[in-house]
Design goal:
Number of strands: 6
Largest sheet: 6 strands, parallel
Strand order of the largest sheet: 1-2-3-4-5-6
Number of helices: 5
Radius of gyration: 16 Å
Strand content: 15-25%
Order of helices and strands: EHEEHEHEEHH
Helix content: 10-25%
């Protein structure tokens, strides 16, 4: 289940879950046969990369919790109108928390990914029981 954002050769050597592409690492290794995901930051990128990926992350949907000054350029109405682009291969990311997750229920994302809602700005401060409690607050996704 481990997906690497760097050191792609390890994914094959260790039979890991896959590789994740982004602007820093835009291509999978030649002849790579495992799972491929990618970070997308525009609808145009989703259109371009979704056909060659198993799934894509689309961000930032809302103002980031963990990256200061990293805000969304998307309106909820614009996302709702992206029919045929946003589907079960597109995972919403960025600013997803108990307050914002319910705003996405009528947009056909395949799921949501959270970082800051669980970890905040300093993952070392969070203890396991707090992490589990916060995770349960997020379990409202359909």
């Amino acid at each position: 289940r481990i997906v690497l954002h760097d050191w792609f050769t390890l994914a094959e050597e260790r039979a890991l879950g896959g590789v994740h592409l982004n602007r820093r690492n835009p291509e999978a290794p030649p002849l790579y046969k495992g799972s491929i995901s990618r970070s997308c930051h525009s609808l145009e990128e989703i259109i371009e990369y979704k056909p060659v990926c198993d799934y894509v992350f689309f961000s930032p949907i809302f103002q980031s919790i963990s990256k200061e000054g990293y805000g969304s350029g998307f309106s909820l109405d614009g996302l709702r109108n992206a029919k045929g682009i946003i589907d079960d291969k597109v995972i919403a990311l960025g600013g997803i928390c108990p307050r914002t997750i319910t705003k996405l229920k009528d947009i056909p994302f395949g799921g949501v990914a959270v970082l800051g809602a669980l970890w905040g700005n300093d993952p070392s401060l969070l203890v396991a029981d707090q992490l589990i409690k916060q995770f349960k607050r997020l379990q409202v996704w359909p």
